[in-house]
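== Sequence entry ==
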Amino acid sequence: MNGRRSALQVVEGIDLSGRVCVITGASSGLGRESARALAATGAHVVLTARNEDALAQTARWIGAEVPDARVSTVPLDLTVLAGVRAAASAIRDIAPAIHVLMNNAGVMFTPFGRTGDGFELQIGTNHFGHFELTRLLVPGLAAAGDARIVTLSSGGHVLGDVDFDDPNWENREYDKFVAYGASKTANILHAVEADRRLRGLGIRAYAVHPGTVATSLARYMSKSDFSQLRKYADGHLDLVMPEHGAATQVWAAVSPQLADRGGLYLEDCGVSEAVAPYACDEQRAVDWWELSEKLCART
């Protein structure tokens, strides 16, 4: 991973004073490390997550780690679109212009469940909640004049494609691996089409594979689950710590190398070609966006 750079190393020499970065899932793991790194650049970082106590703890931690850090907190529950809309309103009040939106929060390999709006839990949290949040924050991103949307995907997108006819597992037997893969494929399709639609507003979008990171996301995994994943990974599952795993998403947010580029799949602090063709197909990205709009509008 480029010598396993840390998120803090990625931002060395970067000055984002006067800029605003919004991070979902900022209370732990990759989001927490990304927030610390972006705060170190002088940016105003808006932390969002479902657990308000954990958010407050993270804000205090960043304040202790980064002198003069400017941090705000907004509760956000991605599993309830009404809550997403309330959070978006609160974010707009705090920051009329948004320079970075990092769609970092997510769940992985969960038992079958549904969000408050009836979406399958993994795709509802990882994609539809972020899709709606991003849509509502487009005016703020456009106001920045030079903004980036960074959405966390995964190499695990190869585990499953989106199902246009049954995106929420209403007519199939649930498979948590395929469902996770579909949600991560949805993230890439979202980034591809967001970049096409929004680049005229000065907004570029990226999907990021952070590597196999040691975070609480693995709490639903059994030993047999890890064995199955090793088969997909050709026997290699090299875990990295969050401070290193967050490097690529932070790089996506700040790197001058990405100026005037977008719709890309990133890993190891660089552009990656290791993306399934179905996940980056431009027409499928258009169709997935339109379906996402319809499904979110129903709630």
